[in-house]
Design a protein that fits this description.
The chain has about 600 residues and is α+β, with helices and mostly antiparallel strands. Helix content is about 55%, strand content about 10%. Belongs to the acyl-CoA dehydrogenase family.
Length: about 600
């Protein structure tokens, strides 16, 4: 199993050199404590916890999994103790509201911690990760009483949270959900129904679990317009705020699944469980999007983590494994063969993983800064602009990063050859764990419809223009930089083409709405490669500027430039296929009669 090492040098490069985090934090309201020394200390301590505590439990969780009994669900060996260390370290409260026990640090710092936690042990990280979503939902939509009762406990980490959306018959089509909420005389509700695929739905790591549940009130409108949101605790709170009597909610069974074995994925039964309405009646889906958007950025981190973990494992292996000779002559003449890292195809796989991991880190941290501004920007104009950019980037980050992160996990396995298929090396676990990323929190297809349909076409392209303008300004500012020409020219070209393709798809959709669904996934993937081109061009500029100014880290910055060059020459051309395919027309998908598929 690879020993995870937090990539601290690259984390600091993205935060401090690419995104100017010190200046960014100084521009926020209430972020005075986010000084460079404080941020550095947080990241250093977080790295130690992830490397020394969580990483050794990753394979344990995969092998043992969770166990169900009528008394409850038991997590793998060491998970509960690790969570207690996590709580004692104050990690759950880091970015939360100080009015309810939080430390009030910017959300982007929390994303750095989430990256390290997720890469070290994704299954374990899902437990506190889901609590962040519950915290954000109650903070945004809960009453003051609900905040005092639940938010304080979630922020301290004493209680954890879940999101309960999906049901056996409806999957992502939440408009057809059947869970009912019957009003009680005391103002509470009796929640009855079954939810499936509930991550961290039952476990032994905390004394209480706060379920955020979608259900229908009597007489509610059909479809998504008739869904309300409820807080349903596993144990009902006592007047003093402690966990009291057991509520009528239970884990009926654990799902047997491909990966993330260390996380309890539960079938949850609500048998007249007592719940409290959160937010307005019949506006539950609107409120739940607070949770879902948090989860989508979190899932994007899974793509980064899969690429980073695969890269770390395969890089170490490729330096040690001896096989064949370099075609240009022996590179290890004293040995029986050369290390496989000398072979071009192995370099292709390693560089793909490196380009994906470092590009993903830049994208997630950029999104994280927009979250900061939305929450703590000093002007309404700043907050509105950041919210627009975040809304545009979220489906790209979630879907594109999990797609190419999974590709990178597979490449990590491939570098090992036959050993990659063997469990002890950890590469096949990384592949299995990563596969869910493209499915939960909205599949790639759903994210693609959100991007092309809601974010781009329904705004007449305004959200796209908000991003392409950033790219245009960057290209214009660096048009005369000869050293950057190899990056700026293709970046400017794809930025221009992006708008042209959007217009063509939009025109086709005006004649046939099916064109949106037919083009959407290719459009999202194209958009992802375009966003990466912008980020890699910016990273190349930072590295080139450092080289000109003089540095003792020439190898680090040269590697940035060389990885950028690899990306532009060997990965960005993939966008050409997506451009052609998105214009192929819906008829190529829909003309075949259903009966003909079986012929």
């Amino acid at each position: 199993m690879p020993e995870y090492k937090a990539p601290l040098r690259d984390i600091k490069f993205v935060m401090n050199e690419l995104l100017n985090s010190e200046q960014h934090y100084a521009s926020l309201e209430g972020a005075e404590d986010a000084t460079p020394d404080m941020v550095d200390a947080i990241i250093q301590e977080g790295a130690k916890f992830c490397e020394q505590v969580l990483s050794p439990l990753n394979q344990v969780g995969d092998k043992e999994g969770c166990t169900w009994s009528e008394d409850g669900v038991k997590t793998p060996t060491g998970f509960k103790e690790a969570y207690q260390q996590y709580v004692e370290g104050g990690w759950p409260s880091m970015t939360a509201d100080p009015n309810y026990g939080g430390q009030g640090l910017p959300h982007s710092i929390g994303l750095v911690m989430s990256e390290m936690v997720g890469t070290a042990n994704w299954s374990w990280g899902m437990y506190p990760g889901l609590s962040h979503g519950a915290t954000n939902t109650i903070e945004a939509h809960g009453t003051e009483e609900q905040k005092q009762t639940y938010l304080t406990k979630l922020i301290s980490g004493e209680w954890t949270g879940t999101m309960c959306l999906t049901e056996p018959h409806c999957g992502s089509d939440l408009g057809t959900l059947r869970t009912k909420a019957e009003p009680n005389a005391d103002g509470t509700y009796s929640i009855t129904g079954t939810k499936i695929f509930i991550s961290a739905g039952e476990h032994d790591m905390a004394e209480n679990i706060v379920h955020i549940v979608l259900a229908r009130l009597p007489g509610a409108p059909e479809g998504t317009k008739g869904i309300s949101l409820f807080i349903v605790p596993k144990q009902l709170p006592n007047e003093d705020g402690s966990a009291g009597e057991r509520n009528a909610v239970s884990c009926g069974s654990l799902e047997h699944k491909m990966g993330i074995h260390g996380n309890a994925t539960c079938v949850m039964n609500f048998d007249g469980a007592k719940g409290w309405l959160i937010g307005p009646e019949n506006k539950g889906l609107n409120c739940m999007f607070t949770f879902m958007n948090t989860a989508r950025i979190g899932t994007a981190i899974q793509g980064l983590g899969a690429a980073e973990l695969g890269f770390q494992g395969s890089l170490t292996y490729s330096k040690d494994r001896l096989a064949m000779r370099s075609l240009s002559g022996p590179k290890n003449p004293e040995g029986i063969a050369d290390p496989i890292i000398v072979h071009p195809d192995v370099r292709r796989m390693l560089l793909t993983q490196k380009a994906v991991a470092e590009g993903a880190r830049a994208l997630i941290y950029l999104a994280g800064q927009q979250v900061d501004v939305v929450h703590s920007g000093k002007t309404e104009e700043e907050r509105k602009a950041a919210d627009g950019l975040l809304g545009f980037l979220t489906p790209i980050a979630k879907a594109f990063l999990t797609e190419i992160g999974y590709e990178s996990a597979n490449l990590g396995m491939q570098v090992f050859g036959g050993h990659g298929f063997i469990s002890e090396w950890g590469m096949e676990q990384n592949v299995r764990d990563a596969r869910i990323g493209m499915i939960y929190e909205g599949t790639t297809g759903i994210q693609a419809l959100d991007l092309l349909g809601r974010k781009v076409l329904m705004t007449q392209g305004e959200s796209l223009k908000g991003f392409t303008k950033l790219v245009h300004v960057f290209c214009k500012e660096n048009a005369d930089n000869e050293q950057l020409k190899e990056f700026i020219e293709p970046l400017a070209a794809i930025n221009k083409e992006w708008g042209e393709l959007t217009t063509k798809v939009g025109m086709a959709a005006m004649k046939n709405r099916e064109e949106v669904g037919a083009a959407s996934v290719d459009y999202l993937m194209y958009s992802g490669y375009a966003v990466f081109a912008y980020l890699w061009a910016r990273m190349a500029k930072v590295a080139l500027d450092k080289m000109v100014d003089g540095t003792t880290e020439e190898m680090f910055y040269n590697a940035k430039i060389q990885t950028a060059r690899f990306y532009f020459k060997r990965m960005l051309p993939r966008s050409r296929a997506h451009a052609e395919t998105m214009l192929a027309g819906a008829d190529t998908l829909l003309d075949m009669p259903e009966e003909a598929f079986a012929l």
